[in-house]
């Protein structure tokens, strides 16, 4: 690589171009944008969840190459940095994806190094939920709020924690990995453990819970967005499942609220689609488990990006570092 990432930040202009990549088992997107958050072009492919890293990496590079070809044809300048958002646990000092529940064949993969060598560009990497939190703080529902939480329910339940305007990674880069909390001895699993918070409250988990509670209506778990549509349409059984999910999510949310005292909690997929169908029973659960105390809850908000959230999150590792560097 020509320069270390922190060195090249000195030379980035306000319109410097970024190659952004958002990687998950369900879909992977590549975007061509700049440090202002403007996105010029994007490309997307579907699931790579069953692929081992070498095969998946080749597919990701093919996606990126196709995007860059379109950008060159339009006369856009070459990117100066690569920004990555990836699901799963990340060792940020080494740029290694240690594990990802939606990428089960990935184990300690050197994603940052491989991309840097492949494209001869500096690479910055961020965990999926953290990148979503940064996108909401800089451009979305959390603009101007320095203490907030981004709660992601897809592919697992996890929290991106913003303290004093910066992402909190924790001592072992594991802050916010709340989905593994055991809420019951047994129950739905989603991409986690049976009875875990991910099992009860993730998109996949809620669909699995619907099948468990109402097998006559759902002989197999519905697709998450089919279930969301049923709940939003007022289907009683789907709404009862949402209430049960909110009961467990409320317990975890109360722990976050009492520990971190955030001003705002922003909800990502699929909570942003459920809206008050989820937020109303969630508020009730938090207050009930908190003893009904009069202290104010944080403001609850939905992501403003909808389907664009993953694209914005793809750019945030570099945009956040650039903004922090400019302030220092």
From TrEMBL:
Pfam families: ROK. SUPFAM superfamilies: Actin-like ATPase domain (SSF53067). It comes from the Bacteria. Belongs to the ROK (NagC/XylR) family. PANTHER family: BIFUNCTIONAL UDP-N-ACETYLGLUCOSAMINE 2-EPIMERASE_N-ACETYLMANNOSAMINE KINASE, ROK (REPRESSOR, ORF, KINASE) FAMILY. This is Putative Transcriptional regulator. It comes from Candidatus Brevifilum fermentans.
